[in-house]
């Protein structure tokens, strides 16, 4: 196509594209469309395919000009973008916006401008040689004991307590509760029936665990509870509530003994408790190794982003935030529209939540941009032999066959994700070779994974 183009860089990775299409292209397009309609259109008084061009032009001329302009502009943009690089071509989620409707004149060239977001053009400076502080984490007796206790909890037998038994910490309580007014009457709308929680966990709105301790099944108790100004629930912070709680059921967990029988119940591959302990330690060590690898990579990327300042296009941030919103809806087992209604009902809004995520989303996106640029610059490649080696490594770690691993990665998308991960790990290894790892704060093994719960 006979055209001229000019790209102008704007702020935040936005581009203005000015296009001029030769008048001969416009005239030809208009003529071709008239001929097409003349052959296919049927008007009163004319047979199909016999409508004179002059009649069509007189009746539909302006509309046809609009169609021609739209078709030619779309074709021109297609040609331009196909031959453009990532810093000139619009992002998939950035639709080009027409600045204003162009003037259509068969005797003149057609000129128009569009603006859109592109992949950030970043010139990276320092990308290695950083000092990275990582937490010091050990797996000792305390960590083993905690994991064993968790296994006992998962294998506990829940039994009903006797009528005379008193509620204790770790018992499972079923209660009815409500708020009371100054006269001691229940406040309408505050009643809650058959609420179940484990005493001592604080998994109830009013945190009345201590008040329930000592109660017997069937007993009702009225009490007043004050909440500090910094209480986690803002609606209760700084308030005093009168509450009525009735204990309707009480259950206890009978924890199994830590012995060979428990180990065999967990998995038939264990013959003794020592077998179970050895497996737990191995899994914890693997989890710790993977977590520390993740922390090293994240710390490195954070340093690179701090060292190399650049702006992200708004459409990229918007797409990431919208993706997080959709994921939150899935977590709540609802759709995005219903989630928004739930947020409004709880005094929040989608806009405020997206804004609260914005800073973290920008950091993540900048890290992705950095990784993509470095992978491209260093031309890191993965061979079929590398993939086979990774299959073998995964199989060994999961104690399954290589064939089972291959079956899992038979989906091309999964395999592509694996290849991308191999590339990234190689990139991090190259960069970390020139970094200094220092000891950070001592951190408990469990605390290292808290945010993942």
Automatic annotation (TrEMBL):
Any one GO molecular function term: ribosome binding
Reaction(s) catalysed by this chain's protein: [protein]-peptidylproline (omega=180) = [protein]-peptidylproline (omega=0)
- One Gene Ontology term, aspect cellular component: cytoplasm
- Predominantly, its location class is cytoplasm
The Trigger factor C-terminal domain, residue ranges:
272-433
GO BP term, example: protein transport
Assigned EC number:
5.2.1.8
> Which top EC class is given?
isomerase
Compartments it resides in: Cytoplasm
Residues forming the Trigger factor ribosome-binding bacterial domain are 5-150
| Membrane spanning residue stretches | none
**Record keyword Cytoplasm present:** yes
Question: InterPro entries, alphabetically?
Answer: PPIase_dom_sf, PPIase_FKBP_dom, Trig_fac, Trigger_fac_C, Trigger_fac_C_sf, Trigger_fac_ribosome-bd_bac, Trigger_fac_ribosome-bd_sf, Trigger_fact/SurA_dom_sf
Lineage, top-rank taxon, reads Bacteria
Span of domain PPIase FKBP-type = 166-239
Q: Which UniProt keywords apply?
A: Cell cycle, Cell division, Chaperone, Cytoplasm, Isomerase, Rotamase
Parts forming coiled coils:
none
Family note: Belongs to the FKBP-type PPIase family. Tig subfamily.
Q: What is the stated purpose of this protein?
A: Involved in protein export. Acts as a chaperone by maintaining the newly synthesized protein in an open conformation. Functions as a peptidyl-prolyl cis-trans isomerase.
* PANTHER family from the UniProt entry: TRIGGER FACTOR CHAPERONE AND PEPTIDYL-PROLYL CIS/TRANS ISOMERASE, TRIGGER FACTOR-LIKE PROTEIN TIG, CHLOROPLASTIC
Domain-related comment:
Consists of 3 domains; the N-terminus binds the ribosome, the middle domain has PPIase activity, while the C-terminus has intrinsic chaperone activity on its own.
What this protein is called in its record is Trigger factor
Q: Which organism is it from?
A: Teretinema zuelzerae
- Phylogenetic placement of the source organism: Bacteria, Pseudomonadati, Spirochaetota, Spirochaetia, Spirochaetales
Gene encoding it? Answer: tig
